[in-house]
């Protein structure tokens, strides 16, 4: 009999590899066989591999077609494919070192060599401290001190030579796992090999998934090849596919089902809001399935997490299903130690206090996790309330179970009809309760959450359109709870027969992934009708939802935007943003006025803003020097607006205002003196309200011949938001019409923001119309031409009807309208914006705007008499409109 | 520790698990290697009940880190743990 090649490995790699060893031992021990036996062996050694590789390849195609997660994840998936192929044929002793090397290669692939080196070096430093030849307490103390030092660096107290992108991943790999590692290695009888210890921290998928911080170290060791390896791989494949499906479903919910709190105006809306908020958790569930599935491909037979958690039938059941890795972490480090200490006081007391400690710890540790992701440590009342209520419910549930027990079974038990109905109702009750709690957790504040209920109770008849699918979803939960598959263990994977289980799971995985790949192909979905094609096309694109895009824009205006773990798409964008990405008034060049004007630029300042030179002239404009009095023979244009006009993210002289001036001069006779002056009256973080004030207080002193009012889609919302804030702060509003509208809507200084938003929303178009009419009247009264220019944000998806509505308001007010909404169509977004976290145009983008503006001015030269000749090669008005339409 | 004593430990533990957590189940279905924690039979509350039973019945003390799947996942694991405690081994 051939001697197994891995003899002697048992003690070094792990205690439980009997399944793997037995299967391979049988294969190696087999001698010459008959044809059926040979075929059987060929199937075992090659056929299964090819079937697994096929599934993994299709999964990667789905990741590509549906832009699952990030481009980095696609690259990592491809690396995983080739890594798996090599790993599969390696002898067992080489697999762990190979996995570790592959994980490190993954970090280099995603981050590049320099950043990856920093990440690995920092990680090895922490790992090294944990293994210093010192006592346990000394090592723990040193690690705490190091973590404290890193925390100081995380908040930016001192500059660091590594990229900010290192922090979330470093935090994810070490800041929880190190605690488990220290705890478990303190008690372990047989140390793991170094490759396994290091692999525990540098897990291959982690570099793309910072929300996966916790794996139990003992489980990580115990489950390594603890079963037949093809079955382990296949289960992993199934979970990868399931993760992809969850992420596509998440995208559907994110794009089509979510509504903003301010849109809640009936109980139907409220139900939809709560459901969608809870369903957004599919993102985390999908990510966990992907991560654990990928680890299975390398022999880590980790337990399933998030198993049918929407169908939990009690609060304890929910806690045991949703994120069992977190639950196990809290049980190990908090629950059991607390219980053992407290049990002298009686089991009930110990159980209650230990459970409450777990939930209090969970509350704080979520903020701790958030700290490493974003650099802040949010402690909010709604967080505390959520965990307190959930903890209380779990305590009550635990006491009930401790007294009366719960139904357990060694096998699958047939339920009676009454039991099924009871289970369905309990499932629906649990689901509804968690939805309500989840919405509290997600709310901006407790008062905002209560305002949702008030708004729903008041009810607005026309808002019923939001509510249609909410009862359907609840019915689905009841049906799922009643008729769904028999519940198996939520805490561990069920042992399966290797043969049948493998093929069955492969069929299930292919049954999902093949249709997904097929429908994701443009030649297929474009033939399914425009509605389906649009829906599939939307689901295939990873982007911010309209609400989150607005939130991102809001972030430019105020640093109060709630970017947190709940709007995960948005925080990922913010995660890459430098910690100090200031608003203009936080720099020497800007200041808060304390009145309705909000912000002013400080005259004659040179500073750095978003990494670029930012200089103001003696008039407090971001521009070169101009005399207050207009020189003879000069056409003067006042460009007024917000951050796009002032040029956030580009250097002095790179703004489209400055470029337009150059283009206008170049367009005039070559031997003539400069005939055009374009003055930049833009200030970032201001809304139509402050821009109007600035126009009246400052612009007209410069006697412009034309006022270019640069508008954006978000202007209406920003105007409403600012008016509410002004009223809340008690600032004087110098316009009777605006004051009266606020009074009429019932907005007082005490009105909660979401309520005020809801009250003022119906008046929003009228408010903007009033502002525009005022601008036009004041401008024309001074003999100048008012021009309204619609300028889209880069990477903005705007409903055409919204632009039409804004343009109509501007036109009716008396503006000359220029619509540049299609100007970014077909361009590479990343080539024309400042950064992923900042959708302002970069220098190239500003150049494009200036060129398009010049063309539009030529086309409109009759209505905007600036002395420009209409060029034959310029874009006609019809062309402009056509391009805009095409881009939509 | 004799074979009889080890067998008695396993029988006692099995009897407790069947009566406390699996009433009505076929005793033959509960084998010495049936996964209790990873199989979802022992949740945290049940694990603590089992710990209390084992400590009281066999006069031993368990530590918090022993209340896990490495030590209590099967009747055999539990029996081994009890035996090692009774023999005074760590």
Describe the overall structure:
- The complex is a heterodimer of chains A (888) and B (90).
- Chain A starts with 9 loop residues before the first helix and ends with a helix.
- Helix content of chain A is 59%, strand content 5%.
- With 888 residues, chain A is mostly helical.
- Chain A has a domain at 621-887: SGNH hydrolase (Rossmann fold, 3-Layer(aba) Sandwich), CATH 3.40.50.1110.
- With 90 residues, chain B is mostly helical.
- Chain B has a single domain, classed as ACP-like (Non-ribosomal Peptide Synthetase Peptidyl Carrier Protein, Chain A, Orthogonal Bundle).
- Chain B has helices at 3-21, 44-58, 69-72, 75-86.
- The radius of gyration of chain B is 12 Å and the shape is globular.
- The mean pLDDT of chain B is 90.
- Classes of the chains: A mainly alpha (888), B mainly alpha (90).
- Chain A binds chain B through residues 183-184, 186-187, 218-219, 222, 303, 316, 320, 331-332, 335-337, 339-340, 343, 347, 351, 398, 401-402, 405, 408-411, 488-495, and chain B through 20-22, 25-26, 29-30, 34-35, 37-41, 43-45, 48-49, 52, 63-65, 67-70.
């Amino acid at each position: 009999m051939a001697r197994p090649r891995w003899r002697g490995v048992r003690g070094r790699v792990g205690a439980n590899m009997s399944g793997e060893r037995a299967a391979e031992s049988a294969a190696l021990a087999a001698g010459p066989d008959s044809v059926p036996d040979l075929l059987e062996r060929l199937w075992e050694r090659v056929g299964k591999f090819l079937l697994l590789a096929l599934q993994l390849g299709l999964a990667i195609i789905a990741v590509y077609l549906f832009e699952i997660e990030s481009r980095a994840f696609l690259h990592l998936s491809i690396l995983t494919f080739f890594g798996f192929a090599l790993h599969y044929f390696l002898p067992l002793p080489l697999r762990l070192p190979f996995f570790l090397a592959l994980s490190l290669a993954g970090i280099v692939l995603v981050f590049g060599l320099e950043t990856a080196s920093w990440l690995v070096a920092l990680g090895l430093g922490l790992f090294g401290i944990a293994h210093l030849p010192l006592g346990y307490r000394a090592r723990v103390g040193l690690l705490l001190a190091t973590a404290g030092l890193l925390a100081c660096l995380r908040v930016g107290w001192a500059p660091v030579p590594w990229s900010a992108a290192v922090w979330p991943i470093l935090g994810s790999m070490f800041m929880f796992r190190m605690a488990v590692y220290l705890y478990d290695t303190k008690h372990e009888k047989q140390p793991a090999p170094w490759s396994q210890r290091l692999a525990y921290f540098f897990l291959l998928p982690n570099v793309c998934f910072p929300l996966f911080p916790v794996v139990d170290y003992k489980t990580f060791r115990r489950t390594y090849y603890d079963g037949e390896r093809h079955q382990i791989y296949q289960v992993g494949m199934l979970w990868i596919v399931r993760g992809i499906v969850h992420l596509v479903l998440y995208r559907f919910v994110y794009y089509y089902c979510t509504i903003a709190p301010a849109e809640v105006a009936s109980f139907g809306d409220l139900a939809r809001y709560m459901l969608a908020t809870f369903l957004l958790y599919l993102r985390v569930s999908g990510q966990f399935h992907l991560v654990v599935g990928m680890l299975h491909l390398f022999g880590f037979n980790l337990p399933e997490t998030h198993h049918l958690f929407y169908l939990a039938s009690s609060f304890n059941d929910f806690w045991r299903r949703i994120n069992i890795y977190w639950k196990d972490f809290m049980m190990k480090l908090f629950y059991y130690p607390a219980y053992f200490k407290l049990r002298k006081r009686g089991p009930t007391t110990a159980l209650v206090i230990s459970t409450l400690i777990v939930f209090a710890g969970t509350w704080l540790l979520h903020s701790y996790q958030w700290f490493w992701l974003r650099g802040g440590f949010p402690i909010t009342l709604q967080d505390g309330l959520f965990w307190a209520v959930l903890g209380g419910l779990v305590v009550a549930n635990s006491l009930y179970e401790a007294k009366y027990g719960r139904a357990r079974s060694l096998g699958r038990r047939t339920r009676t009809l009454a039991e099924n109905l009871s289970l369905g109702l309990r499932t629906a009750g649990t689901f509804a309760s968690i939805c309500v709690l989840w919405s509290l957790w997600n709310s901006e504040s407790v008062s905002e959450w209560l305002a949702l209920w008030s708004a729903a109770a008041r009810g607005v008849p026309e808002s019923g359109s939001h509510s249609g699918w909410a009862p359907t979803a609840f019915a689905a939960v009841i049906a799922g709870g009643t008729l769904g598959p028999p519940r198996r263990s939520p805490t561990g994977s069920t042992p399966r027969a290797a043969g049948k289980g493998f093929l069955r799971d492969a069929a299930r995985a292919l049954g999902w992934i093949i249709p997904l790949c097929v429908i994701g192909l443009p030649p297929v979905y474009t033939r399914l009708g425009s509605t389906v094609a649009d829906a599939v096309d939307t689901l295939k694109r990873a982007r911010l939802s309209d609400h989150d895009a607005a939130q991102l824009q809001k972030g430019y205006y105020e640093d109060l935007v709630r970017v947190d773990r709940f709007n995960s798409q948005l925080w990922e964008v913010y995660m890459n943003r430098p910690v100090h990405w200031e608003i203009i008034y936080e720099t020497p060049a800007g200041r808060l006025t304390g009145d309705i004007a909000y912000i002013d630029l400080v005259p004659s300042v040179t500073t750095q803003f978003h990494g670029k030179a930012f200089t103001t002239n003696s008039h407090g404009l971001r521009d070169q020097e101009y005399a207050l009095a207009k020189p003879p023979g000069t056409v003067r244009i006042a460009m007024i607006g917000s951050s796009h006009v002032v040029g956030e993210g580009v250097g002095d002289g790179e703004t489209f205002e400055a470029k337009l001036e150059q283009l206008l001069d170049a367009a005039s006779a070559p031997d003539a003196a400069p005939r055009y002056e374009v003055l930049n009256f833009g200030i970032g973080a201001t809304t139509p309200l402050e821009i109007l004030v600035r126009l009246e207080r400052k612009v007209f002193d410069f006697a412009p011949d034309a006022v270019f009012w640069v508008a954006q889609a978000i202007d209406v919302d920003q105007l409403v938001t600012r008016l509410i804030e002004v009223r809340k702060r008690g600032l004087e509003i110098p316009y009777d019409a605006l004051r009266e509208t606020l009074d009429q809507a019932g907005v007082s200084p005490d009105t909660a923001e979401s309520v005020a938003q809801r009250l003022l929303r119906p008046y929003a178009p009228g408010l903007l119309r009033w502002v525009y009419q005022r601008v036009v009247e004041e401008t024309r009264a001074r003999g100048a031409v008012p021009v309204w220019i619609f300028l889209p944000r880069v990477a903005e998806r705007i409903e055409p009807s919204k632009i039409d509505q804004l343009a109509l308001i501007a036109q009716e007010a008396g503006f000359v309208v220029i619509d540049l909404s299609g100007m970014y169509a077909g361009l590479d977004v990343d080539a024309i914006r400042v950064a992923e976290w900042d959708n302002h145009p970069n220098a190239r983008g500003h150049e494009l705007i200036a060129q398009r503006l010049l063309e539009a001015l030529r086309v409109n030269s009759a209505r905007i008499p600036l002395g420009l000749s209409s060029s034959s090669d310029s874009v006609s008005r019809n062309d402009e409109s056509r391009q805009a339409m095409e881009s939509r | 520790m004799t074979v009889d004593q080890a067998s008695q430990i396993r029988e006692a533990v099995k009897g407790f698990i069947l009566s406390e957590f699996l009433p009505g189940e076929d005793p033959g279905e509960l084998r010495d290697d049936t996964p209790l924690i990873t199989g979802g039979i022992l949740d945290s509350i049940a694990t603590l009940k089992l710990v209390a039973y084992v400590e009281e019945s066999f006069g031993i003390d368990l530590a918090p880190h022993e209340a896990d799947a490495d030590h209590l996942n099967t009747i055999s694991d539990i029996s081994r743990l009890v035996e090692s405690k009774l023999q005074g081994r760590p």
